[in-house]
Structure formats: C-alpha cells, structure tokens
Design a protein that fits this description.
This protein is an alpha/beta fold and 165 residues long. It has a single domain, classed as HAD superfamily/HAD-like (Rossmann fold, 3-Layer(aba) Sandwich), CATH 3.40.50.1000. The protein is built from 6 helices and 6 strands, in the order βαβαβαβαβαβα.
Length: 165
C-alpha cells in the first residue's frame, strides 16, 4: 500500500515556501497540470500559483510539467509559464518520469513530484524513487473515470491517515 502513499500532503502547491523546500532538500519539482496548477482545461493558473512559480525560479528551483494530457493541451500551458514539459506521460508508468528527471538534470533525491492524484502522480513518483507531494484538487467537477479513481483514493487516504496517526 505504501506505493500509493505520498511522502507529504499539502492543500496547494503554493503552500511549499522556500523553508519547506530547503527543509526537504528539494531542488527540482515535477508538476502535474490539471487540478494541481490550475483547474481542468484552464489555460493559465491563478495569481497565487504564478507568484509561487516566480518564488521557485528566484530560489533556483528547477521546474518541469509532467502531464497525462495531450501535447495540444500541455504545450500552450507550459509555454505561457516558460516551463519545459512532458505530455502524454502515461502516468504512473515510469517512462514520463524518467524523461522529466533527465531534463531536470538533478539528483533524484532532490526531486519531488507534485500532483493531485494518488493513482497516477504519487504512485508514479514513488515507483521512480522520487519524493512525492499530494495536493488537494482545485475542482472536484471531473469526468466519471477520475471520479471513480477519487473513490479508490479516499479509501487509500483513510489507511494513510490511520498509519500516520
């Protein structure tokens, strides 16, 4: 079950300040898009996320987007933020994560994966030996497939919370 457990859980990406990143020795972040940086199909993140991305850049944190969404969705989003990306990642498969790690050119122990889904973002990051950070989704209006996954994730999170006390 630990394959599904995040190393850390926060409400939003912007809850990771410089102190948090330094404390956890994080020098690079692999970021999901939909429901992590913005709502589904939104072309830009909100102002708090934009400020957080600037804070990361100013402090030398490397950033890359890793998304299961299509090139057509991810490229304009990543370009608007000036970020490199891997689209059509097939998370939780390792391939997309490995491509992102290679592009970051940072030691794996200094990279964290940030996402809103246990069965894709967190599982894939854990499979690759990366730190994992779960954030709450921005919007719960999702397609049926994701809603089904959310029900499974609720059960996993109950177990996770019991283990953590």
């Amino acid at each position: 079950m630990s394959l599904f457990y995040p190393d850390m859980a926060l409400k939003r990406v912007y809850d990771m300040d410089c102190e948090f990143l330094e404390k956890h020795d994080i020098k690079a972040l692999i970021l999901d898009v939909d429901n992590t940086l913005t709502t589904h199909n939104n072309p830009l993140p909100d102002e708090l996320v934009l400020k957080w991305l600037d804070m990361c850049r100013q402090n030398g944190i490397k950033l890359i987007i890793l998304s299961n969404n299509t090139y057509k969705r991810v490229k304009p989003f990543a370009d608007s933020l000036g970020l490199d990306f891997v689209s059509d990642a097939l998370k939780p498969k390792r391939t997309g994560y490995e491509r992102a790690v290679q592009k970051l050119d940072t030691a794996k122990e200094n990279i964290a994966v940030v996402g809103d889904q246990l069965l894709t973002d967190i599982m894939g990051g854990n499979r690759c030996g990366l730190k994992t950070i779960l954030v709450e989704p921005f919007d719960l209006k999702e397609n049926v497939f994701i809603l089904l996954k959310r029900q499974i994730e609720k059960l996993i999170m109950l177990s996770y919370k019991k283990r953590r006390g």
